[in-house]
Structures are given as structure tokens and as C-alpha cells.
Amino acid sequence: MNAYFDMPSDLQHSYLGLIGLHLREALLPVLFGLVVALPVAQLCVRFKWLYSPVLWVTTVLYAIPSLAFFVVLIDYTGATETTVMIPLTVYSLVLLVPAIVDGVRSVSPDTMAAATAMGFGPVQRYLKVQLPIAVPAIFAGLRLAAVSSISLVSVGTLIGNQGALGNLLADGQFYHRTPLIVTSVVTTALLAILVDGLLVLIQTLLTPWAPRGGKSAGKGAGKSGRPSLLRRRTTSAAREPEPAAARAALEDAVR
Amino acid sequence: MIQIDSVTKRYPDGTVAVDELSLEIPDGSITVLVGPSGCGKTTTLRMINRMVELTGGRILLDGADIHAQPVNALRRSMGYVIQNAGLFQHRTIVDNIATVPRMLGWDRDRARKRARDLMDRVGLDASLAKRYPYQLSGGQQQRVGVARALAADPPVLLMDEPFSAVDPIVRKVLQAELLRIQAELGKTIVFVTHDIDEAIKLGDMVAVLRTGGKLAQYAPPDELLSAPADAFVEDFLGTDRGIRRLSFFTSAGLELTTAPIIAVDSSAAQVAERTKASGAPYLLLTDTDGKPLGWTGPAAAAKGGAALSVAELLPHGRPFVFGKESLRDALDCAVLSPTGWAVAVDDGGRVVGVTSQTTIAEAIRGAHAERGAAGSPSASAKAAAAEAAAVDPAIAESKAAESKAV
Amino acid sequence: MNVLNFINDFFSDSANWHGTTGIPHRLLEHVEYSLLALLISAVIGLPIGLFAGHAGRGGYALAAFSTAARALPSFGLLVLMTVWLGEIGTTPAMIPLVALAVAPILVTSYEAIRSVDPAPVDAARGMGMSSAAVLFQVEIPAALPLILSGLRSAAIQVVSTATIAAYIGLGGLGRYIIDGLAQHTYGKVVGGATLVAGLAIVTIGVFYLVERLAVSPGVRRGR
């Protein structure tokens, strides 16, 4: 076991310390990304013409390799955690904006009209109707962002040991300790799965009105009530559970 | 002939959708399965082409078990029309219709030619051939669905609530079109609907199913209306089934009178003479072609021919086509007419006579005596007669005047 | 220092346009790696996703598998594969790239088939189409835009991530980034990153064209 969990002294961290560091470097950017993405997405919903150029910019940003991003930033922010976290924030932002826009847009005009008719102002309508209904879509984006962020932190090892668990990769090669590399990969993957599961749990708690998988309604169709793996695009699948969801959210809001 | 022989569908969870159902579906006619939701009508239909596999009993197609041939061969021998048409959005209209012929190995040109013929048959303009489904209205899409089902000229057509998703006006047109096509092709059609009016309008035979997949009654629509088997069927038929049954009685035997009819170019003397002869307070004025213009009021008639101005006429309402339309139509015309008299016209719209509500009521009684006795002399036949009689008080006021005219 | 200057310097240096270290050669290598990784991922992901979607089974298994595949850190996996397999050709680089790309392809193609309108599928079965014909003639044509979007998103991630191949001594545009980092010539890093981003845009363009050609106008306009 020691071969796997004895941390080389140059890392200046215990195994658990590395995990903490990794989570911080990976998840703070997701949080920042969400904070920025919400107003950006709302702007895109409000001004429809904005969405297309925003999508293009985000896609190009997303395509820039993380390593290149890190390297360019060294000149500004040095070989620090910040240098790793800025690109990760950008990637999160890029994943979250379309997710939120699609989610908010998927709220049916009927629901919006009903909310307006009940006397909701624009802000209330956004906070109490649109946002709650968009929660599943937003969480789909959050899960992708968190998992990819956790994976990408490791690359930070290449810019002066800023990769948390990823630093084990460089050390493992340097000291010829393959078990350290295995530890790095397995721990990172497990962290990603854990955080993903945690987000699913939070989403379930936030959306008690959402239909749970498995229960199907309607005769013989057999195609409804399936587990939806994708919620990002406005497919009919994503729209399907919406009326019930919309109704419940409205009822909540009225209370 | 399709024989459904004590067929049962029991799902693994124990739910019974269809329970020991037996039906004989005659060739060349429309058989409608009707009932509330959960009565197993769609399940029954889908068992015929094995979209749902039965769990008990058997279904015979022309004497052979439907399991005797490969399932896809069976399905290709039956047209299948569903509620939302289910068109292939990636194929043009003509290629949608050509699907089954292509599956049966026809070459593309022959299949497309056949598809274009069918478009014509179901009343689709040829210019739509190269369009895609999203470019068509719901009614047009449903026509394509019917054409696609007919493409390989299958003897059997299975239709699962085909007109439920279109608006009432389009539905009426599509129903009429189906009857027209059926008159030309004489297919064996099994038609599922939850709409009893649609069932009565389209069905040669109607099977009413009750919740739990049991047969409540299997009869021609006329018999269904006159003699519902039990309270469930009676309730399902609705309150005005007596009136609706009149749709099955022809107006051909109705007694007409031409006494109060007068052309617009008649002289004052003729008008006065006709007013006296008919004894009616109203005269029906026609144009020189014999088409109805309207009723003259008693005052106008008293003034004689000089005052026969079209502007003062009472509207004659919708006339009924004598011999073609039913007693229900005649009665409806009379009830809606301001004078209480119905105007009968020929195919060209020329007046052939007028008739009063009393005369129609007598004709109804006569028809019931003839037809109702042949059916079961049950409470329902009586109810129908009572309903016809109930028309009378409504016309009591003008009865004195009318009885003279008749 | 200015990123635009770096880009300008990098692309105007004629030395960067010739030979095995030149842009055309590196670009070609990058495209090769990306295409190979995408091809392998598609060969694995498409059939499984499409058939699972058609059968309506295995959704939870696919979700679990793709979550696991996504959770694998690409860079860590690359290092691990290099240590385990040695630096033998492109295999150690292909494994993390395929792990990255297979999840979106698998999940999207499954979900694409599942979200096809059930009415035409019912009609197709009812008129006697075989199960395979239903999948290939009805479900896939209708689901194609979504299937392509899964492939596209996989392709963009592969193009971006294929840079890590340079870490284990392979070529591709990652060379400029890794070498630039080692030599502290940031111009190279920025130039390499620009090329990768450009390639991603071209990828989007290619997918746009494929969609125009392969997707029926009835499906494209009907959405």
C-alpha cells in the first residue's frame, strides 16, 4: 500500500491534502463559472441575437488546449493555482452558458404566459419559474463542467507542479514509481464520479417534481419515462416531462 | 373475413386488456371498435397485425391463423393507419406512400407511379408529391397516411383513431372521404375510435367494448341506436340516440305537398287563388328556376301578388334533398324553419315540395313501426317512438293551420 | 507582450512552414490522430448507442459507463498508458482520446434514437418493416442531426485534447505547445493553440456540411 500512498516530499502535501487541493482547484472554477454564466445566459435569453455569437466564442474558447491556456497565463499570473483556475473557469462558463440558455428557453410560452397572468414581474418570473424549471438542464451542464474540470486540473503539473493529484504523474515518472501514477488516475476518476453523484443527488433534492426514471405513462408507446442521459439540446425528450414540471414549479412559486 | 375467437390479452403484471373477445369481421365493410379509454379497442386492433401478441384465443384471417405466416408478411398484407399519421419526416410524400410497395420489391418508378395514383384517390394535389410531411396540414398528413396504407392494395385496412387529432371540420371531411374511398375500393376495414358519433357514421358494424376489454354489443349502428343491449351501451350512446337513429331512415317516403308553392313571376290573381287553395298562412316563393326564395308572411299573402317583394320574405332555412337525405335532416329543416315547414329540393336545388313537422312525425312513426318491430321491441324502441312523439308538442301551435294543408 | 504579436510572429516565420516540424506537416499529423481517435470511438460508440436506443434497453448501463469514461483524466491516463505500454506508436495516446470521445458519441446516439417520434416507428412496424429496417430507414434518418451533434462534440474535444500526444514524443500541433513551454518560447505555444482552435472551427464547418448533405430536408426543416 505504501507504494501507492507514500507521497514524495517535494509535493509538500499528504494524500488527503492533495485531494483537498484538487477539489479546490477544480470546483472553485465551476462555481465562478456558474456565477458568471447565469447573467450571461440571461442576457442571451433576453437578447436572442446575442446567443449565436456567444456560442461561437465559447466554442472556440473551449477548443483551446488547456496546456496552451495555462502557459499563456504564466506571464500574467505566474505558475500558481490561479493560472490553472482561470482556464477552468472559462471552460465551465463555456459548458454552462448553453446549458442554462437551453434550459430557460425550454420553459414553454404557456407556462410563461400563465406566470405573467398570475402577476409575476420579470424578476420574479425568472427566479421562481424559469430558473427552477431549468434546474435539470443547468445540472447537466454543471456535471459536465465539474467532471471535465477535475480531469483537467492534472495538466497543471506541467506548469510547475500546479496539478494537485496530477503532480503525482510527474513524480511517478521522475522517481519511476508507477503506483503513484495509478493512484493519481484512479483517485481523480473516483473524485469525478463522486462529485458527479453528489450533483445528481442535489439535483434530485432540488427538483422533487421531476419524474423519476422508470415510471412510464401512456399506452403501449413504451418510449416515454425513459432515463434521460442528455438534457442539453432541446430535444423532444428534454421537453417531455416539462408540463408536469412547469405546473409544479408554478404551484411552488404561488405558495 | 377476420375471426376474432375468444381472444384474451393479459399482460405480465396481470392486467387484462382484452377478455375473451369474439367478433366476426365481415369482408368489404367497415367494422368499428368503439368504447371508453381502457376498453382494449386499440389492443384488439393491434393484435390483428400482431403489434400486440395475444395471450389467449386465436385470430383467423380468411380461415388461417394469423400466426401461420411470418409476422412481417402478415403486416404487409394489411394497411395500418394511426392517429398522428406517423409519416416518415425524412421522406417526401410520394416516397412515404411508396414505402410498402418498395418493401415488396417493386421498382422505384412503378412504386412512385402507384403512389401518385393514390394521392389522387385520397384527394391530395399532385403538387404535394415532392413536399415533406412538415409542409402539410394535419388533415393532409392523415390523407397521406391513408394513401400509404392503401399503397400495396391490401385487402384489410386497420385504422387506429385516424381522425382523432384533426379539428372537427377536417374530421368531417376526412370521414366523408373515407366513405367515398370505401365505396370505390370495398376494403375490409377495422376502425378504432372513442367517438360514438364517428362509429355510427362510418360503421357497417359497430362493436362497443367496455372497460376491461369485454364486448358489450356488436350490431349495425341502426340496431345499436334502437336496441342498446344494456345500460352501459345506452349511456355510451348518449341522450339523443332516438334523433340520431333517424339518420338511418330515408326521406324518400315522406309525403310532400306542392300547394303552397308559387313562382315569383306569378300574377296577383294567381297568388290570391293559391293562397285560398292551400289554406296555409304561408306561401313558399320560388324563383323562375324553381329554387326557393323564402316564405311569404300572412300579411304579405293578404296583399296579393303586387306585394311579393323578396325583401319581405321569411328565410326558408336549409332545404333537404328529397330521397337522399334522411328523416333526421328533414326534421332538422322543419325545426329550424321559421314557419315550421321543411322545404324538399332535388339534386339541382329545385323545390319538389314542402312538408310539415306533423307529416314528418307521422313518417317517423311509420318508419319505426316498420323497422323497430323488426329489431327487438325493447324499451329503447319505445323510447325512440316516444322521442318522435315528443316532437309534437313543439309544433302544437301551428298544428291547426298545418292539418288543413296536409 | 501581446498575444496577437505572438500569433503574427509565429505565422510569419517561414521556418514554421517547411519540413517535418512545419505547420502543414504538424497539422496533418494532428488531423490523423484526431480522425483515428474519432473513428475508433465511433466504431465503438455508434453501434452500441444506436442498438441500445433501438432496443430501448441498457440506458442506465450506458449512463454509468459514460460517466466512468468521462471521469478518466485524459492526461493521467496518457501518462499511465505510456508507463504501462511504453512509447509504442500512437496507442498510448489513442486510449485517452477514445475514452474521452466515446462517451458523448454513445450517449448522444442512444438518446437520439430514443427521442425519435414513436408514431412513425409504430407505423413502420405496422406496415411490416423488419427491426433492422426500422432502425436504418426510420429511426436513424430522423435522429441523424442529434447523432451528428454527438460526433461533433466528440470531435472538438478530440481535436483539442490530441495536443497531449506531443507529451509522449508524438507529433501534431501539441508539439508547438509542449516545445514552446520547454523552450520558453511563448510564440510557439500561442501559435499552436491558435492552430488547434482553428482546426476546431474547421471541424464544426465540416460537420455543418455533412449535416447539409446527409440530413433529409424534411428532418432539417421540420424541427
TrEMBL record, chain A:
It comes from Actinacidiphila alni. It is a multi-pass membrane protein. GO terms for cellular component: plasma membrane. Residues 19-203 form the ABC transmembrane type-1 domain. This is Osmoprotectant transport system permease protein. Residues 213-255 are annotated as: Disordered. Belongs to the binding-protein-dependent transport system permease family. It is found in: Cell membrane; Membrane.
From TrEMBL, chain B:
Residues 2-237 form the ABC transporter domain. Keywords: ATP-binding, Nucleotide-binding, Transport. Pfam families: ABC_tran. It is an enzyme of class 7 (translocase). It comes from the Bacteria. One of its GO terms (molecular function) is ATP binding. Gene3D superfamilies: P-loop containing nucleotide triphosphate hydrolases. Belongs to the ABC transporter superfamily. This is ABC-type quaternary amine transporter. It comes from Actinacidiphila alni.
From TrEMBL, chain C:
Residues 27-214 form the ABC transmembrane type-1 domain. The keyword Transport applies. InterPro entries: ABC_transp_perm/SBD, MetI-like, MetI-like_sf. It comes from Actinacidiphila alni. One of its GO terms (biological process) is glycine betaine transport. One of its GO terms (cellular component) is plasma membrane. Keywords: Membrane, Transmembrane, Transmembrane helix, Transport. It is a multi-pass membrane protein. It is found in: Cell membrane; Membrane. The chain crosses the membrane at residues 33-53, 60-81, 93-113, 154-177, 189-210. This is Osmoprotectant transport system permease protein. Belongs to the binding-protein-dependent transport system permease family.
